[in-house]
Design a protein that fits this description.
Bound molecules: nicotinamide-adenine-dinucleotide, L-histidinol, zinc ion
CATH superfamily of the largest domain: Nitrogenase molybdenum iron protein domain
Number of domains: 3
EC number: 1.1.1.23
Distance between the termini: 80 Å
Helix content: 40-55%
Strand order of the largest sheet: 1-13-12-11-14-15
Number of helices: 16
Pfam families: Histidinol_dh
Structural class: alpha/beta
Radius of gyration: 25 Å
Shape: globular
Pathway: Amino-acid biosynthesis; L-histidine biosynthesis; L-histidine from 5-phospho-alpha-D-ribose 1-diphosphate: step 9/9
Strand content: 15-25%
Enzyme class: oxidoreductase
CATH class of the largest domain: Alpha Beta
GO biological process, one term: L-histidine biosynthetic process
Number of strands: 16
């Protein structure tokens, strides 16, 4: 079952903490070596390679790599009304939050006649990944698509693995979610091969694919398993990506006031994603640790995906970490930089304000990660593997770029001419200064 790491009485530096805290054995770097040939094959052979990998990894050879539009409409027609209502509420809430994320253009008047503006421009075309291996993720369709739409992106394509049970098309709820959001470019392509298809585009291999199956995109976003995250790392630079949003992580900072049953169910809720998912409890309370261990022992066998959950909890990426006090715990969770951090402790809101590295923070007993996974309004596509130290979760910012516009008049430039020449000469780039001087002779 879940192991313990005892950090009590040990004052480790942030770097030492990172080395001591649990991480999965198969990381993104190792996975990148495994998926590099997949990325190369899709780049070289397009749809032919996509069909081969679908057969190998998803157990089905899709006839239609591009989902026919009428399949989207029929999936929406057949969607369970309760699921539809849930997705619609998620869309409404996620849209409200993401509309508020739109960054503002600005103009700075630096001096009379000297102006610098900054305009935010959406990228032209995006590729959005919705996972569909061990579980199905229509909620990820919502998170990706709404954020891109609110950013103003015009061309959106979604990919999700083909399912044998759905005749080689993605899961029907994925298709229905796309239809609900008005997306009609959907591909039955999963894993690293989907990321490669978006990054490089793909030529068709069957008459129904046409000559060009998929045009390349500017940005690829979305969550996925370690192979998806690895492929995103490989194509970064060819296209933009969001964060590496790989196997799910939950860290919970809790004290003796936390309900052990809630802590245990929250750990299990995220462990059920993937055997590589990480579940970490950080607590100064030995009593809470013992009570959570006992609850886990009861609950794990009864949960639907017991084998996956047990693997995740027993893996080297999961642990109960004992700390001296909440201050110590705060340093530990900050060094870990979890995708999701729950704080179930006295003064949770004040503690949350002091966290600097986490994909998203869930404050207090009534904000479990499952709320954010579906319907809080926040985005559930979040950085994993410590990427929260330098990356944000998915949002409008993932799909826009800033363009600076510089406009000086004659007098404003002349005022600066001598200074520009002085600095240009000092850099031994005198032609730069000359380009200014030439205007005033
Ligand atoms: N960080 C986040 O924001 C976030 C959000 C939601 C889900 N997730 C994670 O997404 C993942 C979903 O994983 P999933 O597996 O269910 O679906 P997935 O769609 O990510 O992966 C399925 C694909 O993985 C590929 N694959 C499987 N085995 C492979 C191998 N040995 N080599 C190369 N490719 C292989 C196949 O192409 C398959 O189509 C989970 O890890 C979950 O925790 C993360
Ligand atoms: N917990 C996942 C992010 O790591 C998101 C998700 C979608 N569905 C259920 N959960
Ligand atoms: Zn989840």
């Amino acid at each position: 079952m879940i192991s313990r790491i005892d950090l009590r009485g040990r004052s480790l530096s942030a770097r030492e903490l990172v080395e001591t805290l649990p991480r999965a054995e198969l990381g993104v770097e190792d996975a990148a070596h495994r998926v590099a040939p997949i990325v190369d094959a899709v780049r070289a052979r397009g749809a032919e390679a996509l069909r081969e990998y679908a057969e190998r990894f998803d157990g089905v050879r899709p006839e239609h790599l591009r989902v026919p539009v009428d399949a989207l409409a029929s999936a929406l027609g057949a969607l369970d009304p309760d699921v539809r209502a849930g997705l619609e509420e998620a869309i409404r809430r996620v849209r409200l939050v993401h509309a508020a994320q739109r960054p503002q253009d600005f103009t700075v008047e630096i001096a009379p006649g000297a102006q610098v503006r900054q305009r935010w421009v959406p990228v032209r075309r995006v590729g959005l990944y919705a996972p569909g291996g061990l579980a199905v993720y229509p909620s990820s369709v919502v998170m990706n698509v709404v954020a891109a739409q609110e950013a103003g992106v015009r061309s959106l394509a979604v990919a999700s693995p083909p399912q044998k049970e759905n005749g080689g098309l993605p899961h029907p709820t994925i298709l229905a979610a796309c239809a609900l959001l008005g997306v009609d470019e959907v591909y039955a392509v999963g894993g690293a091969q989907a990321v490669a298809m978006f990054a490089y585009g793909a030529a068709g291999s069957e008459p129904q694919d046409g000559d060009v199956l998929c045009e390349p995109v500017d940005v690829v976003t979305g969550p996925g398993n370690v192979y998806v995250a690895a492929a995103k790392r490989l194509v970064r630079g060819v296209v933009g990506i969001d964060a590496e949003a790989g196997p799910t992580e939950i860290a919970i900072l809790a004290d003796a006031t936390a309900d052990p049953g809630h802590v245990a169910t929250d750990l299990i809720s995220q462990a059920e994603h993937d055997p590589l998912a990480a579940a970490v409890l950080v607590t100064p309370s030995v009593e809470l640790a013992a009570a959570v261990e006992a609850r886990l022992a009861d609950l794990v066998t009864a949960t639907k995906h017991a084998a996956r959950v047990a693997q995740s909890l027993a893996g080297p990426q999961s642990a109960i970490v004992l700390v001296d006090d909440l201050e110590h715990g705060l340093r530990v969770v900050d060094a870990y930089g979890a995708e999701h951090l729950e704080i179930q402790a006295d003064g949770a809101a004040a503690l949350a304000e002091r966290v600097t590295s986490a994909g998203a923070i869930f404050v207090g007993p009534w904000s479990p990660v499952s709320l954010g996974d579906y319907m809080a309004g926040s985005n559930h596509v979040l950085p994993t593997g410590g990427c929260a130290h330098f990356s944000s979760g998915l949002g409008v910012h993932s799909y826009v770029k800033a363009v600076q516009v510089i406009e000086y008049d004659r007098d404003a430039l002349e005022d600066l001419a001598d200074r520009i020449v002085a600095v240009a000469n000092d850099e031994d780039l005198p032609a730069h200064g000359e380009a200014v001087r030439a205007r005033f002779v």
